[in-house]
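Budget justification, computational time. The allocation requested in the original proposal was used primarily to generate structure tokens for proteins on the priority list. As evidence of use, we reproduce two of the resulting records. The first is shown immediately below.
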Amino acid sequence: MGIKVDQIVLRHIRMPLVHFFETSFGRTYERDIILVEAIADGVSGWGEVTAGENPFYNEEWTGSIWPLLIGYIAPRILRHEFASLEDVGARTAHIRGHNMTRGGAEAAIWDLQARLNNEPLWKTIGAGARREISCGVSIGIQDSVPQLLQKIETELAAGYQRIKMKIKPGWDVDVIRQVRQRFPGIKLMADANSAYTLHDIDHLKRLDEFYLMMIEQPLAHDDIIDHAVLQSKLETPICLDECIRSAHHAEQAIRLKAGRIINIKLGRVGGFAEAKRVHDVCQENAIPVWCGGMLESGIGRAHNIALSTLPDFTLPGDVSASKRYWKRDIIVPPVEVTPKGAIQVSDAPGFGYELDTDYLESLVVRREVLR
């Protein structure tokens, strides 16, 4: 069954975070988010471009998304007859990089097709291996260790099954030691966001004493080879994030033994079709995966929930409750986590939640309608 998009509406919204979020890239106090609404036969599907406000995680940022969608992506999508949803990503594959922008548009069309079929998005993508997903949290770099310990205490009390803490040089070994002393039995991982090099091998080897679940992307954002060298020196599993942008990258990393776990982010790989391919490569090679987050609004969060019901998502992901980030989300009800640290999967059509339309419109900074 084919699909043809008649109209695309772009919205730039600005949402203040409940608390600043700091990584090795810097601090974020509010999110500028681009939403893509794809319309066909009077029905709307929604996607979220998950790039940040600055080109630090990858080459994309809020300012680059708008002209790319208007000038290159929308013209290739509008009025084109897609025989299959798998063809949507291929339609813009000639664009170098910018997977998050392409993926936001692609996700909107998958959501649109789910709504046209009157079925949940997880069913449209061929998932549904579980009726609830296990949740962890990502905790940014704090002003002090006591502040970090208090945040971990709060999240554990809320039921979250895994704690991920951001690290960088100067905020790593000694901080993790204090976390482990306070919480000796929790599932704990560290995310470096490419803050180290191979010159730091001896320093990173010190992390082995803390029996971490994994250390995420310790080396360069575009590197696989050096990660293979580092993994051979560490007992702690390396999880690859930024450097895995496609199923081919996943195949290369697995062949080189560059890591033992892969984080799949929907935007980073360009949408659902490629995310499924990455998932399948990992599953075939017994590499567990989990779903990473990019401080998404409720739309992107709901997409991550659907993605996480694919069978190889066996580790708790970064999909957490709306209230961790937003005083008010743009979906109703907000995403909620059960006391045992899980999210129930919705059977409602599309991404599974209603839009809080009035609140969403109050956040719009600019809008563009493309026909």
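The second record produced under the same allocation is shown here.
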Amino acid sequence: MTDSEKPLYLALISVHGLIRGHNLELGRDADTGGQTLYVLELAQALAEREDVDRVDLITRQVVDSTVDADYAELMEQISTKLRIIRITAGPDEYLPKEQLWDHLPTFVDQLYDYFRHQERWPDIFHSHYADAGWVGARLAQLTGIPLIHTGHSLGRVKRRRLLAAGLSREDIENHYNMTRRIEAEELTLATAERVITSTQQEIEEQYEIYDYYQPKQMRVVPPGTNLELFTTPTGKELDLPQFTLLTRHLRNPRRPIIFALSRPDKRKNITKLIEAYGESKTLQDLANLVIIAGNREDIDDLDDGARDVFYELLATVDRYDLYGKVAIPKQHRRDDVPYFYRIVAAVKGVFVNPALTEPFGLTLIEAAASGLPIVATRDGGPRDIIGNCNNGFLVDPLDPQEIADKLLQILQDNQCWQSLSQHGLKGVREHYSWQAHADR
């Protein structure tokens, strides 16, 4: 930065989910997952740069007795250069992203009015996901301020995967409002100066099916992880309270653990992992299966999608009579997650991501940084991660036999486990770093 250049004012827009500067409720629902963590950490990293004067992370205000009062605060100061700004749009209550489309024009008007009363307009808008892309595109058209966009996942790709999983076009449209999402993505692609993707595959095989596909405007910036937070085991993991949390329902808790961590979302395909485990007596004799699928008090109090997922998970456990071999803990904190990975690594386990589609797969990086081999869907980001790290296997997420075979290949061969673990640690250091993400 030269003396004549002013430090940048950046506005990151992420409309849906529950976003705050502390104690993120990851896994609470389908909208409060990896994107909320990614956007917050990106904002924090940008705010630490000398060439950045100010970062506003902009989301929707939620005034709702069913969620924490933090989400009703119009402004939350995170640091001297970073704050969360919450914009009023639509009803007060918390809404899933599929129900927000009618309220986005109000969001644009309110956000434009907010900026109009600031002493300075942003230098760049950076939108996240299709709804924020629509907002960012409208603001860019109104102001001439350049828009950068990160999709996180894509509607056309998601629709293909859901059709392959057996859902009808009518059900997909009714549940996901897919036509409006895809129209928003097309508008965003037509407007954005740059589109940030996690992988080259995302550019070549996912965005390529859009009408406004402009590969020259796209840049690959893989997300990273905090290598000071996600580390290898120290040798004391089995004495931690998190070990008890993970294993208290298991008959033989010190066996290797097959570990999955995701939101309770049908697209995460967790049931197929339980089927793979349930169909393999050898796998059951070798290892336990532990699934972290958000937090819950009473399954009946969850939203429809999460409730259906849990009923399906429990029914599958019951069908294969996996009691004492499978654990699905009810509660955890985000701070517990690094310990979970270390515990699984300490007992020579494996991390699995069986999602139908995975735009990147930040949990795979976290697991690899903790010394865990991985088995992951061959769709999307895992292809790049395993290609760079050489620390696991890609599988067809709809094929439980292939999932089981790859898990057995790792768990039955200690030399294979050690090799994949070491490759992963080396690959993460070389290719994925949370601290370096903002520099890219």
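A brief technical remark on that second record: The longest helix spans residues 414-431.
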